[in-house]
Amino acid sequence: MYFILNIYSGDQQNTLKYLKNTEVNLNNVLIMTGDFNIRDSDWNLLYPCYLTYSDTLRKVADSLNLELLTLINPVPTWYVDNPQDSNSAINLIFLHAEFNNHQISPKLQSPSNHASLLVSIIIEEKIVQGRKKTIVKNNKEEKEFVNELRIKISDINMTNILDNNILEHIAQEFAIIAENLWNKYFKLANITKYFKAWWDKECNRDLAIYHTSIRKRD
Q: What is the pLDDT of residue 72?
């Protein structure tokens, strides 16, 4: 599961201070975006000043493994109503490094005075396996697997464990035994909507009886 943080931090930067001071621990944050109300020459070439809040924002982004990446079109994101003021870039997007850029679209400006920020996320095709290796619970294969594993474990010599090397050798021997027995007894099962840990042959039988009764009824 991935998260997108949409943030508004006012002139006093209370939201940004909260994120920094509480050391928010969020895994899998994909994007952090919003109105940060921070003017800085790093993202606004027409603004010559540098603010200490910029460091705080970067620290928060670093803690989430996000970066402020290259803009395709460095134009303002905030358009002022007062002609005495100047437009600025205070809406930002912080992304994972694999998303190499984003762009600002003033043409999609919302009813407010903020431009839209656009980023393309490539969704790769993923092959989902239709079969799974399994040993069915309470089945004959499970009982034979457990019994043979118990016997072979009891044959391992564990009377002279004098150092870590011997212990490591015993652990590797156990792993090899367990893997070989797993490969001996597992079955390939089709993954369907009925593929649950508790689903067994009796469930298949009862489902088939139910389908037969429905057909007869029709």
A: 64
138 lies in which domain range?
131-217
Is 61 in contact with 32 (CB distance < 8 Å)?
yes
pLDDT at 56: 84
Q: Are residues 20 and 44 in the same domain?
A: yes
* 59-64: Cβ within 8 A, 24+ apart: 59/20, 60/16, 60/19, 60/20, 60/24, 60/32, 61/32, 61/94, 63/23, 63/24, 64/5, 64/26, 64/29, 64/32, 64/94
Q: Kindly state whether residue 123 falls inside one of the protein's structural domains.
A: no
Q: Is residue 125 part of a domain?
A: no
Cα separations in angstroms, 154 against 137, 144, 159, 175, 177: 23, 16, 11, 14, 12
Residue 180 pLDDT: 93
Please state the pTM of the whole predicted model.
0.45
**Residue at a domain's end among 66, 87, 118:** 118
- As for how many domains the chain has, the answer is 2
Return the pLDDT at 118: 74
